[in-house]
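Example 9 (inverse folding). The structure is encoded as follows.
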């Protein structure tokens, strides 16, 4: 996992990006006839396997190395990031519950979405988040349940580049 500085990667260098976005559409969704989530809900062995992997991943603490740049969240110090990732991501979840939800999303949806309000991290269930591409930058906005809209700098998005969902 990497915390990126959006000023270095947010603007696309591809001059064909606007045409690509127009061809792909304004929303990115799934066209799979059976989703991993359906298999997770209906097949006990899939459910158990995903839960075992997510729990194992969630039990590992993170080690944050020395900060090399201000990054995406300029007010966040190394100690604060360690607290968010390893101890208290938000007032409503333990770190293990929070990370278990993130890894479950990663396994089933290929994406992790976290909302950062400047103090705490909150899990956004990946199955309910819609990414709206932008003709010039990577993301115009994120929408949760077609109701709540988030700016790109409010959401930490981690995705599996090999996930074919």
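The amino acid assigned to each position is listed next.
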């Amino acid at each position: 996992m990497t915390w990126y500085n959006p000023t270095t990667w947010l603007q696309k260098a591809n001059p064909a990006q606007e045409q690509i976005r127009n061809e792909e559409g304004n929303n990115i969704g799934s066209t799979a006839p059976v989703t991993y989530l359906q298999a997770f809900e209906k097949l006990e062995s899939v459910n158990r396997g995903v839960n075992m992997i997510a729990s194992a991943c969630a039990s590992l603490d993170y080690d944050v190395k020395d900060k090399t740049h201000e990054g995406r969240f300029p007010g966040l110090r190394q100690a604060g990031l360690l607290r968010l990732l390893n101890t208290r991501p938000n007032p409503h979840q333990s770190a293990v519950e929070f990370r278990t939800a993130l890894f479950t999303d990663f396994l089933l949806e290929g994406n992790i979405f976290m909302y950062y309000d400047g103090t705490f991290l909150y899990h956004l269930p990946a199955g309910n988040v819609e990414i709206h591409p932008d003709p010039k930058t990577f993301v115009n906005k994120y929408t949760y349940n077609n109701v709540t809209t988030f700016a790109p700098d409010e959401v930490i998005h981690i995705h599996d580049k090999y996930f074919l969902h």
